[in-house]
């Protein structure tokens, strides 16, 4: 059992939980994730370890309350328990002295970049962080990123914070005006695909973190299979980060929608149960249960 020590609202529909998990905190590296189950009959969901504190023995999980399980997770409060948290899982982000690294975060995906930023700074890289969201309210941890990054560029679709535009526009400005040695992008699939297309002509090394449907997280079920340079890989054990120029993004996008109907049905049942018939007209918007990974 894993105790919730703290809960904070990060953005509309986005919460962060700090969990007591000393073993995971002491082994977690940038890029790792966990698989959790809230209770014995719960669905297993993967979430990136967005931060960890070795001294306090805690990990931070940030998630968007978008599907049944993430909505359920959002009902937990300080002092509540999560039944199972397995991890750390997945390969570590390849961290070394690159020179100038640019981290590109889209929406909730940005949280995955926080431990990567800290690890790159420990290796004395210059790090530019680009955080993009639909509007100011949806930007994830801009102040926390700014504390560690050499430069933080905010960009929103509606211009309510920072520049107006998409993260790819900000990335183009950075790559046009300075020498960049590596790009790491995390966010919606189509955003990561757009970043890959932007850096492909110059063969600029680019990693993306993939978030396909994942079940057990240890390579046995095959649910998270992705095609990388024409070969089948499993995001849980071979990734979650891959060379962006090798990823078949269309296949990832298609497979992400595979269980959409079941996910909508499950969320509607959950909501009905929660509001005990008082909110009959609310229909689930329908998206994956997964929060961060
Ligand atoms: P969103 O759709 O609001 O997009 C966030 C930002 O990404 C936009 O403001 C824009 O700057 C950029 N963007 C989006 N589409 C783009 C495109 N086609 N071209 C260029 N830039 C684009 O994001 P959201 O609603 O916060 O959703 C976050 C997504 O990130 C979810 O799909 C979630 O599954 C995914 N995610 C991925 C990971 C991962 O590990 N890969 C982790 C967490 C979340």
Main attributes of the structure:
293 residues; alpha/beta; seven-stranded antiparallel sheet; seven-stranded mixed sheet; disordered C terminus; binds nicotinamide-adenine-dinucleotide
Largest sheet: 7 strands, antiparallel
User: Which word captures the global form?
Assistant: globular
Cα-to-Cα separation, first versus last residue: 22 Å
Low-confidence stretches: 281-292
Q: What is the percent of helical residues?
A: 25-40%
Averaged pLDDT: 90
Given helix and strand content, the structural type is alpha/beta
Question: In DSSP terms, counting alpha (H) and pi (I) runs of 4 or more, how many helices?
Answer: 9
- Biggest sheet strand order reads 6-1-2-5-4-3-7
**Ligands, ions, cofactors:** nicotinamide-adenine-dinucleotide
Strand tally is 16
Please tell me how large the radius of gyration is: 18 Å
Structure, described:
This protein is of the alpha/beta class and about 290 residues long. Helix content is about 25%, strand content about 30%. It contains nine helices and 16 strands. The chain has a seven-stranded antiparallel beta sheet with strand order 6-1-2-5-4-3-7. Helix 5 (about 165-175) packs parallel to helix 6 (about 190-200). The longest helix has 16 residues, at about 260-275. Residues about 280-290 have low confidence and may be disordered.
């Amino acid at each position: 059992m894993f105790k919730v020590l703290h809960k904070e609202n990060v953005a509309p529909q986005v919460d962060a939980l700090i969990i007591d998990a000393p073993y995971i905190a002491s082994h977690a590296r940038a890029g790792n994730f966990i698989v959790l189950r809230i209770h014995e009959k719960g669905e297993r969901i993967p979430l990136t370890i967005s931060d960890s504190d070795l001294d306090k023995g805690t990990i931070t999980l940030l998630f968007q309350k978008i599907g049944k399980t993430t909505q359920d997770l959002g009902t937990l409060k300080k002092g509540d328990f999560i039944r199972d948290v397995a991890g750390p899982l997945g390969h570590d982000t390849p961290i070394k002295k690159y020179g100038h690294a640019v981290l590109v975060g889209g929406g909730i995906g940005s949280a995955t970049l926080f431990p990567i930023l800290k690890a790159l700074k420990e290796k004395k890289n210059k790090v530019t962080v680009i955080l993009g969201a639909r509007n100011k309210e949806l930007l994830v941890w801009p102040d926390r990123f700014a504390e560690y990054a050499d430069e933080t560029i905010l960009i929103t679709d509606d211009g309510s914070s920072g520049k107006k535009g998409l993260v790819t526009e900000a990335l183009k400005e950075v790559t046009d005006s300075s020498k960049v040695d590596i790009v790491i992008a995390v966010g919606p699939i189509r955003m990561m695909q757009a970043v890959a297309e932007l850096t492909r002509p110059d063969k600029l090394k680019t990693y993306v973190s993939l978030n396909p449907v994942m079940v057990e997280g240890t390579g046995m079920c095959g649910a998270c299979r992705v095609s990388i340079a024409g070969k089948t890989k499993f995001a849980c054990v071979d990734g979650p980060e891959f060379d962006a120029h090798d990823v078949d993004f269309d296949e990832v996008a298609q497979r992400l929608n595979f269980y959409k109907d079941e996910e909508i049905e499950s969320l509607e049942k959950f909501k009905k149960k929660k509001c005990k018939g008082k909110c009959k007209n609310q229909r689930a918007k329908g998206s994956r249960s997964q929060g961060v990974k």
